[in-house]
Every structure is written in structure tokens, then in C-alpha cells.
Amino acid sequence: MKAVQVHSFGGPDALAVEELPVPTPGKGEVLVKLELAGVNYIDVYMRNGSYGRSETYRTPLPMTLGMEGGGSVAALGTDTGTVAVGDRVAYCLARGSYAEYAVVPEGKLVRVPDDIPMHIATALMLQGATAHYLTHSAFRLTSQHVCLVHAGAGGVGQLLIQLAKRNGAYVIATVGTREKAALAKARGADATILYREADFREEVLRLTSGRGVDVVYDSVGRDTLPRSLRSLKRRGTCISFGASSGQPEPITLLELAEAGSVFLTRPHLADYMASPEEIGGRASDLFKAVGEGALSVAIDSTLPLANARRAHELIEGRTTRGKLLLDIAA
Ligand code: NDP
Known about the structure:
Strand content: 25-35%
Shape: globular
CATH superfamily of the largest domain: Medium-chain alcohol dehydrogenases, catalytic domain
Order of helices and strands: EEEHEEEEEHEHEHEHEHEHEHEHE
Bound molecules: NADPH dihydro-nicotinamide-adenine-dinucleotide phosphate
Radius of gyration: 20 Å
Number of helices: 9
CATH topology of the largest domain: Quinone Oxidoreductase, Chain A, domain 1
Distance between the termini: 14 Å
Number of strands: 16
CATH architecture of the largest domain: Alpha-Beta Complex
């Protein structure tokens, strides 16, 4: 089978399309014939070595990249029973989806309902689940809350805005361009901040009459985290869930006190997708929202598997507005 491999950590040119044997599912595992793979920022971190020491997301070399996929069940390992050969399935957080086949633990698979197209299901598995746990579990947003969402026109950002609005919160989004501001507004943001034209913290304080926001969802990291903490209301919560601009400088404990006795958490999606029940619950809530017309899933573009390098250049180059997918058969 064709698979996109990484032999040593590096830039997009560390990705190479190679021929590998089709893997065999073992105990509790399922062989999935992939139609689509999702491209996510976590793939960049795994490709460039940022997760070289992660216990949660292991990156042994050589490895087939890709943490999100959609397709059909091709074969079952032993001790399986919740899916059957031919079922339409999607999943995230099992490595190896930039390939024609992947072996996936059965507990990570969700069955894709007939009325949900495969590209929508695949696109929702990782970024959708992230937006879901951020708005429902890491901090449960309600109509009493004001939140700040960085990278509001991004893949996670657009879904996060919509789920935050569905929960009734007031949403302020930061974006890099006017076009992205229009997109974040179209997704429901109540206010947008062009961070290249104005200091986002000053704008947040202006928009909240000096109070600050209840929660910041910060995926940008190095460029934003210190000011995100200072954009919070007293005893507010900062969720630092990514580092698109690089890993932030360490924050001292006293800084949390000085910022208003605020709370800071740095979650991994894996800890909020901790059981088959949790994975299935988030997926069915997301599919339901799509079915009700309450959640639009923006597909930025779909590239052939052989163009995985290009896909990484696009996501790192800040040009994507929504989900990047790889078409496995193209
Ligand atoms: P995005 O579509 O959000 O792409 C990244 C965006 O970040 C860019 O489009 C850009 O938007 C903004 N950005 C700001 N500064 C930079 C910079 N220096 N370099 C590149 N981009 C920058 O990607 P995803 O939706 O796939 O992921 C968003 C973030 O969420 C990532 O950091 C990812 O690691 C994180 N994540 C975390 C998870 C978790 O559970 N912890 C799970 C899933 C994702 P703009 O032009 O508007 O500035």
C-alpha cells in the first residue's frame, strides 16, 4: 500500500510517499481501508519532532503520519465485535492515516451515519472533538460567559465559535486578515479583532468594559499566551491548547496570581477522548449538530495523498480556512 512516512524529524520535505505492506489487525484492532485522511497541526508537531518526548503522542521513527481518517472496515482482528466488515467508520488519535490502510483500536472508531458524508465525518473527528471538549468539558460555556477564541477562522476556530454560540456564549475572535474576520463573523463571532492592527488585549478590555473575558481558548501559544492571561477577568480560565506560533515561554505561578488569580490548563485531546463512550458521545453530538444545520464544516481543500508535503506547507503557511483533507485514492 502507499503510505506517507517520516524517517527523520524535519520540515515538509521530511514526508515521503512509500510502498509498505498492508498491516494486520491484532487483538481489539480493526483494519480500515481509508478514503480520506485529515491534516492537523498535530501532524506538524509529530513531523518536526515537537512531540519527540511526548508519552501521550508517541513518534517512533520511521512512522506513517496522520492522526485522523475515514473509510470502511476491511478486516477485523480478534476480540472485536462493535463494527463489521464494510461499515463506514471514522476516527482520530490513532497514528497512520496518511496511507491506504490503517490499523485502529476498535474503541476509537465511530460508525458514520448514512446521512453524514465521509468528508464531513472525517473533518469533524479531531478538530470537531477538540472544539467540543473545549466548550463542553474543559470549560462548560453558557449564556453567562464571554470567551476569546484565537485563530477564529482556522479549522478548530470556526467550529469552536459555532459550538460556543450554540451554548449561548458571547464570542470574541482574533484573526490575521479582514477576510478571516468576515469568515469568523459568518460563523457567529460577536466581535472580531485584527491582531495585526490592534493589541488584542486592549481590544478585549475595551469590548468588555475593562472586565476581561471568562475564558480564553489559546491555540497560538508563544505570540499570545502572556497577553491571553492578562485578558481574563478575575479568576478567569485560560486554556492553552496549541502552539501554532511556537511553544510559549514558561509562565511563573506568581504570574497567575498577578493576572487575577486565574486558572491555566494545557490539555491534550486524548485526555478528553478517554473511553469509547466519550469518543462516541462527542461524535454523535457533533453529527447531530450537523444534521440540525447548527454546525457548518468548512473544507478548505482536498489534496491527493501524494501531495502531503504541500498540505503541510499550506497549514503552516497560515493560508488554510478550515479543514485540509487528503484523498487517499486520488
Ligand atoms: P488552524 O487552522 O487554526 O491554523 C493555525 C492558525 O493559527 C493560522 O491559520 C493562523 O491564523 C494562526 N496563527 C497565529 N500565529 C501563527 C503562526 N505564527 N504560525 C502559524 N499560524 C499562526 O489549525 P488547526 O485548526 O488544525 O489547529 C489549531 C490549533 O489547535 C493548533 O495549535 C493545534 O495544535 C491545536 N490543537 C490542539 C488540540 C488539543 O487538544 N490540545 C487538538 C487539536 C488542535 P491567523 O492568520 O488568523 O493568525
